[in-house]
Design goal:
It is a single chain. This protein is mainly alpha-helical. The chain has two domains: about 60 residues, Arc Repressor Mutant, subunit A (Orthogonal Bundle); about 140 residues, GntR ligand-binding domain-like (Four Helix Bundle (Hemerythrin (Met), subunit A)), CATH 1.20.120.530. The chain has ten helices and three strands; from the N terminus they run αβααββααααααα. A three-stranded antiparallel sheet has the order 1-3-2. α6 packs antiparallel against α7. The mean pLDDT is about 90.
């Protein structure tokens, strides 16, 4: 049962359905709405203070991304993933990332490297503290986006965003483990160092190791 109210921006040009979609997606990706949770249209309408029409439109969008399953006469189930789905998604992410590296590594600018370094430094500072999983997750997304942008092909970003949405739900959980956080960011650093050296083969190898490790870690440590 959802109790907390969520305020929509009534002065915004963004339609309610899109605001609701973004806010619900954020709650799902951050596990505020955890896998296995069931919510109803009425609960969501009360939460957002709207009619059920924009709720239904937002739900259809989330359903198309695999984040919600509609259960007749019960409501909406925040979907779970099985380990095989995680492996399939990450297999495709490997291909996209390595292709982006191979295509763009010789065109990487100092500004690109500076952006990557800034992300790494922020993350490594956060690793010195505790309970920073929620802050580390978006930095990891930014890091991977920087890699994909190297190819100069926006479709790489779009595809990864679509197929990686499910994986991103478990980033906060992964980073809540000290081993998970430290290992993941060590991998990020290794990928970045290989890119600095313009060694596409090594950078791809390190990226593959990183993504495959993530698949194994999710299988072993995170309930999905």
């Amino acid at each position: 049962m959802i109790k907390s109210k969520v305020n929509l921006n009534k002065k915004s040009y963004v339609p309610y359905r899109d605001q609701i979609y973004e806010k619900l997606k954020a709650k799902i990706l951050s596990n505020v709405l955890a896998p296995g949770t069931i919510v109803t249209e009425n609960e969501l309408a009360q939460m957002f203070g709207t009619s059920r029409t924009p709720i239904r439109e937002a739900i259809r969008h989330l359903q198309s991304e695999g984040l919600i399953e509609v259960i007749p006469k019960k409501g909406m189930l925040i979907s779970r993933m099985n380990p095989d789905e995680v492996a399939k998604i990450n297999e495709l992410r490997e291909i996209i990332h390595c292709h982006a590296i191979a295509k763009g590594i010789l065109n990487v600018t100092q500004a690109d490297l500076n952006r990557i370094e800034k992300i790494l430094n922020k993350a490594e500072d956060l690793l010195k503290g505790k309970d920073n999983a929620a802050k580390l997750a978006p930095l990891s997304i930014q890091f991977h986006q920087c890699i994909l942008k190297m190819a100069g092909n926006d479709l790489f970003l779009a595809v990864d965003q679509y197929i990686g949405t499910q994986i991103k739900r478990y980033m906060v959980d992964l980073f809540s483990f000290e081993e998970g956080a430290s290992t993941s960011w060590r991998h990020h650093r290794e990928v970045a160092e290989a890119i600095k050296q313009q060694d596409a083969r090594l950078a791809c190898q390190k990226m593959q190791e990183h993504i495959r490790w993530g698949t194994s870690f999710i299988r072993e440590h995170i309930s999905i």
